Automatic annotation (TrEMBL):
It holds the Pfam family Response_reg. The keyword Ion transport does not apply. It comes from the Bacteria. This is Uncharacterized protein. One of its GO terms (molecular function) is transcription cis-regulatory region binding. The modification 4-aspartylphosphate is found at D51. Residues 124-224 bind DNA. Keywords: DNA-binding, Phosphoprotein, Transcription, Transcription regulation, Two-component regulatory system.
Length: 225
């Protein structure tokens, strides 16, 4: 899962980033409005944590532009401005939640899991496809009720596909979500192909009914065809 944190307070930004990385999220940061817009235009995120009061713009304006781009990222506003007007406007512009500062990191993590579960998993605690079941809160995978042991990146790739069953997945977009935005600077994707190859092997050996199939020249698709 990949998160964008748009926050100008360097101390809070570092604390939140470290906390979320411990929860196994890929965290990208933007210290101002301009950087936030650039990242949103160029990349896709599972959740955006958005401060309203930025040094070069208003976070609500960024939320408006996100809506105009027709992007569907989950958005949680985190702001010291705890006014009813800002809450209502933020939610009307498409934010999924509003968390006033100061906040506990445990509550922020719970809010992130909640909006992702609500919007990507239809409110379910687990993700199911065929005979595969993923338990995101515990980072566990079962095939036909039996535990499947995966390394971290294999697990992250599986979750990415499980949230998009039957959909063609562009390899670049998937790689950005699992490895972070800096992935576009690498010379080749050989290490990614190796992780996908290992994941496919583990699923086959476990008797999984879904299969990750390569679509030549385009990407991959998890399907039971």
């Amino acid at each position: 899962m990949k998160i964008l944190l748009v926050e100008d307070d360097v101390n809070l930004r570092e604390v939140v980033q470290r906390s979320l990385e411990k929860e196994r999220y890929i965290v990208e940061v933007a210290p101002d409005f301009r950087t936030g817009i650039q990242k949103i235009e160029d990349y896709t995120y599972d959740c955006i944590l958005l401060d309203i009061m930025l040094p070069d713009g208003n976070g609500l304006e960024l939320l408006e532009q996100l809506k105009e781009m027709r992007k569907r990222e989950n958005v949680i506003i985190i702001s010291a401005k705890d006014s009813l007007e800002d809450k209502v406007l933020g939610l009307e512009l498409g934010a999924d939640d509003y968390l006033p500062k100061p906040f506990h990191l445990a509550e922020l993590n719970a809010r992130i899991k909640s909006v992702i579960r609500r919007n990507q998993q239809n409110g379910e605690i687990t993700i199911k496809y065929g005979n595969i079941e993923v338990f995101p809160d515990k980072y566990r995978v079962q095939v036909d009720g039996k535990e499947l042991d995966l390394n971290r990146k294999e697990y992250d790739i599986l979750v990415y596909f499980m949230n998009r069953p039957g959909r063609l997945v562009n390899k670049n977009t998937m790689a950005e979500s699992v490895w972070g935005d800096h992935i576009d600077q690498v010379d080749n994707f050989d290490f990614i192909y190796a992780q996908i190859k290992n994941l496919r092997k583990h699923l086959k050996e476990a008797g999984a009914t879904p299969e990750v199939k390569a679509v030549y020249g385009l990407g991959y698709k998890m399907t039971m065809d």
